[in-house]
Design goal:
Radius of gyration: 21 Å
Helix content: over 70%
Pfam family, one: EamA
Subcellular location: Cell membrane
Keywords: Cell membrane, Membrane, Transmembrane, Transmembrane helix
InterPro entries: Diverse_Substrate_Transporter, EamA_dom, EmrE-like
Number of helices: 12
Shape: globular
Organism: Chitinimonas taiwanensis DSM 18899
Number of domains: 1
Largest sheet: none
Length: 311
């Protein structure tokens, strides 16, 4: 006598994935990792005398094996000479200059203001595209930009009223704005190569080449023996930065994009400035003010408005 197969329902396609495979959680973890970068930089500066290029060299030296692993893991066909030139330029502008300017700026401004300035890169990308393609910008987008930069002014005012060195805050903010500008150029450049090279391979190659630029800069301007003279805590915070704010979030972000798509993963990243400001309050004991919260709300609102206006 034959038996009919069990009528148990099959939930393979409807089950909620484990939390470590959920794209939303991966994107949030990536945003948290990137947000901790400014915190680790601040902690390293507080741990002992160290300058921006030395700290950046430590970060890139410790992250280099992971960038190489990304290249190996991604695989791919042989690149043309034009592709290699593109990777060199992206590494120079995106990971080297952008990171260097950022580290210099963090010497004199709060982690919260730094993250808000960096978060304005979508507005810079939009302006660059408008100039390059001679495409006019709509009124809704201008409104979003106005909200964004009004928020930056509020956050900038927060730093000014909580420090005695107003000029230092101005200069530091200028360095971080240059970092955001450099990253915007990098972001535009990735659009040309990401389809041909692949996102993971592009990140690994440009990151590895940037490590070469940073280490060459360090070797040309600092004695190698100076690394041995750094406080152990500086090495520790640099290692934490390399692992939790460089390698891990890049890997998590790549997985999040694969699971959610680029637009949804990027939308989850808008939590980044909030996390950096909260981390700054609790870990660095950075001062709180309503001006900072107002700046945060305006920047997040402005960037979100611009994103919706472009859709």
């Amino acid at each position: 006598m034959s038996h009919a197969p069990s009528a148990r329902p099959h939930f393979a396609n409807t089950e909620t994935p484990p939390w470590w495979q959920d794209g939303r959680n991966l994107a949030l973890l990536a945003a948290a990792g990137f947000s901790l970068k400014a915190i680790f930089v601040k902690l390293a500066y507080a741990a002992g005398p160290v300058d921006a290029i030395t700290l950046l060299a430590l970060r890139m030296l410790l992250a280099l094996p992971a960038f190489i692993w990304l290249v190996y893991k991604a695989g791919g066909t042989r690149l043309s000479s034009g592709d290699w030139l593109g990777m060199l330029l992206l590494g120079l502008v995106g990971y080297y200059l952008s990171s260097l300017f950022d580290f210099i700026g963090l010497q004199t401004i709060s982690a919260g203001l730094e993250r808000l300035i960096l978060f304005t890169y979508p507005t810079l990308v939009l302006l660059m595209e408008a100039v390059w393609r001679r495409k006019p910008i709509g009124a809704r987008v201008w409104l979003g930009m106005g909200l964004t930069y009004l928020g930056l002014l509020a956050a900038f005012w927060h730093d000014l009223i909580h420090t005695q060195a107003s000029l230092a805050v101005l200069i530091g903010a200028g360095w971080v704005f240059l970092s955001s500008l450099s990253y915007s150029v990098y972001y535009l450049g990735t659009g040309r190569y990401v389809q041909r090279v692949g996102a993971m391979r592009l990140a690994g190659l440009s990151g590895s080449l940037a490590c070469g630029f940073v280490l060459a800069h360090f070797a040309a301007t600092r004695p190698l023996a100076s690394l041995a003279q750094l406080a152990p805590a500086i090495w520790g915070w640099s290692l934490a930065m390399a692992l939790f704010s460089t390698v891990l979030p890049i890997w998590l972000a790549a997985r999040a994009v694969a699971a959610l798509g680029a637009s949804k993963a990027a939308a989850m990243g808008t939590i980044g400035p909030v996390l950096t400001i909260v981390f700054g309050w609790f870990i660095l004991s950075e001062p709180f003010s309503w001006a900072q919260l107002l700046g945060l709300a305006l920047v997040l609102g402005g960037v979100s408005w611009i994103s919706r206006s472009k859709q």
